[in-house]
Input
Amino acid sequence: MKPMRITAFAFCAIVLMLLVAGCTQPSGTANTTTAAPVKTLVIGYQPSTHQMAEITAMSKGWWQQDLAPLGVENVSDKVFPSGPPEMAAMQAGELDIAYVGAAPVLTALATGLDAKIVAGVNTQGSDLVVRNDLDYKGPQSLNGTTIATFPAGSIQDTILRDWLKKNNLTPDKDVIIKAMTGGDAITAITAGKVDAVFLPTPSPSTIVNQGTGKIVVHSGEMYPNHTCCVLVVSGKLIREHPEIVRQILKTNDKAVAYNEQNLDDAAVIYATKTGANLTDVQSSLKEWDGSWASDPNVIINPVLDYAKIQYDLGYIKKPLTKDDIFDLTFYQKN
Output
């Protein structure tokens, strides 16, 4: 009987050791091993030079190449005319990742979107373009005009309305603001249906090169060093596959570095992907006041400012905090 008691005791000790080992396993390891593998990813973007990193990485196959070792078998992207419809698609579960203006993200987060900003994409980079025959002498000369820009809740709409108010002009009273896609806005100013447009690059250069308008104000003059586009990732991906999120940021930074060092080639890649006129793209990259920037820490205050502006405009019904908007744990400075 004595050997049997020793065996039973040893068995119990082994079971206890296994239980303890299970309890002390790092939570991050448990999280990544129990989550269902991600086979496909869909990225949302807009046809703007602000988001050239996404386009370069997709065209060169870097998204697929870099994420394949993590089990991702297919990465595709989907284009949107502006931020609000892109965020509607993300809320509907159609996107895992989005390159999008910071303002539409706030509207979506305030209405339940499960996602966070994990990195910046670009700052500034939009322009106010007026008809050639409009004698622009400052904001007050816009009194009585009609300006086309992206829909309510977009970054352009938010900045434009705030700038007009700061210059003692009441939006939709002193200045009529019409919501349009970039293509429709270009057509409208060309046809004389609106007096001005406020759009991201390269659209302003397209209008200038067509001879139908002139750039009079850069967005950086309206709001110096303002955040424009950001990188948004779904909450599910953040919680269940942080290793994928980290790689997304690395691939984005690789594409930004390539674009900065190979601007002519990046312009060709962009024009090929979007169908934009190459001359317009090249002109916009020379004329714009924007820059590509990934560090989310430097955009916190501008984005929180947008949240206040949107709350004051009535676009969102509740204030948003930094923790509501950002996940800063993934970005690492090189």
